[in-house]
């Protein structure tokens, strides 16, 4: 028999492997397939853009793993954590730990859910690969946190913190939202809106910042993960085009999902803006410039022009995200500073070079609207600690504290009456998502309410026990024991010495 | 019940903060609790305003929260 060419071989290994059920109705096996109103006429036309067989997948991923773990091993063996330019960076890495790693694991489950519920072979293979990718991401990130936990606070009861900390309700509510959507909506939510539109801005600036401050391990995490994301992005684009080309009746449904998930994804990335603009002492790029490059130019002004021929317009509220780029990281950092006494990653007192950089990168907004707030901490790092626990957005779960970008002195908080209750939303984008599915969002759980009602115990200590860390692991970085340990560690290695050259 | 109080004049904290309350308490009691929580100057006159989707509604300090129509989870502004 003649040797098969690549595409024929791929087809032989991945197509026509299932049977048509005779004993049960196919709708009983795939109960969600018609629930969303999507029409698919000829699913066999659709191709997974990467077309990898399992052995090809394993070979490529194995090479990535070997390369990454070699870097990790060298970083750990050579005290890499002590060689970065400023230990406050690790507070940002801690934020990444609870914001992103659970999202990776949730994405692993989500891909399995999509593959299970959409009976299209190409999607099944692509989502299978991606499910394994997401598990790999979660695990290489956890290995970094395990190493950090030998030297730094906040991560020693990682699974408990993941489960219970208020901060983590933001990514958890996002993925729970996607997991309770239909499979096609989940595919658009994650593969297109999350992966195609936003993962570049998640992993590339953060990995570049890691490299800039000397965290070679986390730079490798970011680059290794992003090498998979390019495949996930291609899946997102292919899935979107398939739905648009299969049947015109799909177009308004897809548009609705794009409107919702653009803003949902944009908001879940809020903390990333602080990891780009605030936590690195040496910045690779600003959030504003990264947003312009990766989202405005590539997606909103690029891709969506191509989608116009299908009748697809840019997502609703995308203009709000463009206006908010001047405010986003500052307003989000302000929120983190309010609650740093109850969080497992610390805020920090801005240094003179921080003020210089932020003023230069954000000449229209930082000095005028935000620097006065951060300067309140010059005399006392807890001067801006919130007196209580905040009301959060009923959709994104972030405290309702964003300013209206058109009138920054005013709050952007929206109030909606539904089912005998006033619900608060952080922005018009989240308000419209709430109004489209109020029954879904009115049931979200926010731990502040449980704490205030005494559900976790009667004292602050009880709340920290529930969170999985202690009050000493919170607050401000430069006055923390983490910072002083890092300084001592550097002294022991001789890294504090300055050598003069004559 | 829990109400969410914001002090717009305080430029440190811009969000509503949870304040445990009960329907039978006088609005003045809630006001006192909130002024203490925020550390607002004593001896000044403050008022509470309930926020809802279509606008604002003054809260009468001599009436209970229930008599003012306040419900669990309502957002309130403390003005001074």
CATH homologous superfamily identity of chain B:
Phosphatidylinositol 3-kinase Catalytic Subunit, Chain A, domain 1
Q: What helical percentage do the residues of chain B reach?
A: 10-25%
At the fourth CATH level, what is the homologous superfamily of chain A? Answer: Ribonucleotide Reductase, subunit A
* Helix-and-strand structural type of chain B: alpha+beta
Terminus-to-terminus distance of chain B: 24 Å
What name does the CATH topology of chain A carry? Ribonucleotide Reductase, subunit A
Q: Biggest interface and which pair forms it?
A: A-B, 32 and 25 residues
What gyration radius of chain A follows from the Cα positions, in whole Å?
A: 24 Å
Give an account of the 3D structure:
The complex is a heterodimer of chains A (502) and B (80). Chain A is built from 21 helices and four strands. With 502 residues, chain A is mostly helical. Chain A has a single domain, classed as Ribonucleotide Reductase, subunit A, CATH 1.10.620.20. In chain A, the strands form two sheets. Chain A has a two-stranded antiparallel ribbon. A two-stranded antiparallel sheet of chain A has the order 3-4. The radius of gyration of chain A is 24 Å and the shape is globular. The mean pLDDT of chain A is 92. Chain B has 80 residues and is an alpha+beta fold. Chain B has a single domain (2-79), classed as Ubiquitin-like (UB roll). Chain B has one helix at residues 27-38, and strands at residues 2-6, 17-20, 47-52, 55-59, 75-79. The longest helix of chain B has 12 residues, at 27-38. The radius of gyration of chain B is 11 Å and the shape is globular. The mean pLDDT of chain B is 94. Chains A and B meet through helix 14, strand 3, strand 4 and helix 19 of A and strand 2 of B.
SSE topology:
The complex is a heterodimer of chains A (502) and B (80).
Chain A: H1 6-14, H2 26-29, H3 54-77, H4 89-117, H5 121-148, H6 158-164, H7 169-179, H8 183-213, H9 216-246, H10 250-268, H11 270-277, H12 287-307, H13 318-324, H14 328-338, H15 352-361, H16 366-375, E1 403-404, E2 407-411, E3 414-418, E4 421-425, H17 428-436, H18 438-441, H19 447-452, H20 460-467, H21 481-493
Antiparallel strand pairs in A: 1-2, 3-4
Helix pairs in contact in A: 3-5, 3-9, 4-5, 4-7, 4-8, 4-11, 5-9, 8-9, 8-10, 8-12, 11-14
Chain B: E1 2-6, E2 17-20, H1 27-38, E3 47-52, E4 55-59, E5 75-79
Parallel strand pairs in B: 1-5
Antiparallel strand pairs in B: 1-2, 3-4, 3-5
């Amino acid at each position: 028999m003649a040797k098969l060419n690549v595409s024929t071989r791929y087809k032989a290994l991945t197509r026509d492997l299932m049977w048509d059920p005779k004993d049960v109705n196919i709708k009983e096996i795939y109960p969600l397939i018609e629930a969303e109103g999507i029409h698919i006429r000829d699913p066999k036309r659709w191709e997974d853009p990467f077309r990898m067989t399992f052995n090809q997948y394993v070979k490529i991923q194995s090479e990535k793993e070997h390369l990454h773990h070699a870097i990790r091993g060298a970083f750990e063996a050579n005290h890499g954590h002590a060689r970065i330019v400023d230990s406050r960076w690790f507070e940002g890495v801690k934020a990444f730990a609870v914001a992103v790693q659970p999202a990776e694991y949730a994405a692993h489950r989500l891909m399995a859910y999509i593959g299970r519920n959409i009976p299209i072979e190409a999607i099944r293979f692509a989502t299978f690969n991606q499910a394994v990718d997401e598990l790999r991401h979660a695990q290489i990130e956890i290995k970094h946190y395990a190493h950090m936990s030998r030297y730094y606070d906040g991560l020693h009861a990682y699974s408990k913190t993941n489960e219970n900390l208020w901060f983590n309700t933001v990514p958890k509510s996002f993925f729970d939202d996607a997991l309770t959507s239909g499979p096609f909506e989940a595919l658009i939510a994650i593969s297109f809106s999350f992966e195609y539109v936003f993962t570049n801005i998640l992993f590339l600036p953060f990995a570049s910042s890691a490299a800039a401050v000397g965290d070679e391990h986390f730079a490798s995490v970011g680059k290794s993960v992003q090498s998979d994301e390019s495949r996930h992005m291609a899946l997102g684009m292919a899935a979107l085009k398939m739905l648009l080309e299969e049947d015109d009746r799909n177009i308004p449904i897809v548009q609705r999902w794009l409107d919702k998930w653009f803003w949902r994804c944009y908001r879940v990335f809020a903390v990333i803006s602080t990891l780009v603009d605030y936590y690195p002492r040496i910045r690779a790029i600003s959030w504003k410039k990264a947003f312009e490059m990766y989202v405005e130019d590539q997606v909103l002004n690029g891709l969506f022009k191509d989608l116009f021929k299908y009748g697809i317009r840019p997502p609703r509220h995308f203009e709000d995200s463009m206006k908010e780029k001047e405010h986003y990281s500052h307003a989000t950092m302000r929120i983190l500073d309010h609650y740093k006494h109850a969080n497992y990653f610390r805020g920090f007192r801005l240094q003179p070079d921080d003020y210089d950089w932020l003023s230069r990168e954000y000449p229209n907004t930082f000095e005028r609207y935000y620097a006065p707030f951060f300067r309140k901490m010059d005399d006392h790092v807890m001067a801006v600690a919130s007196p209580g626990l905040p009301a959060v957005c009923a959709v994104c779960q972030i405290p309702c504290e964003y300013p209206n970008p058109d009138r920054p002195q005013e709050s952007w908080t929206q109030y909606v009456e539904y089912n005998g209750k006033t619900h608060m939303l952080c922005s018009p984008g989240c308000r419209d998502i709430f109004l489209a599915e109020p029954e879904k969002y009115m049931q979200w759980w926010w731990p502040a309410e449980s704490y205030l009602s005494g559900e976790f115990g009667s004292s602050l200590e009880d709340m920290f026990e529930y969170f999985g860390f202690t009050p000493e692991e919170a607050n401000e970085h430069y006055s923390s024991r983490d910072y002083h340990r890092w300084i001592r560690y550097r002294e022991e290695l001789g890294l504090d010495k300055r050598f003069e050259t004559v | 019940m829990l109400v969410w109080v914001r002090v717009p004049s305080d430029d440190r904290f811009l969000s509503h903060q949870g304040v445990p309350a009960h329907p039978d308490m006088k609005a003045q009691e809630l006001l006192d609790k909130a002024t203490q929580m925020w550390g607002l100057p004593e001896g000044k006159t403050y008022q509470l305003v309930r926020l809802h989707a279509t606008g604002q509604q003054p809260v009468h300090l001599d009436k209970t929260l229930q008599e003012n129509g306040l419900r669990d989870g309502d957002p309130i502004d403390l003005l001074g």
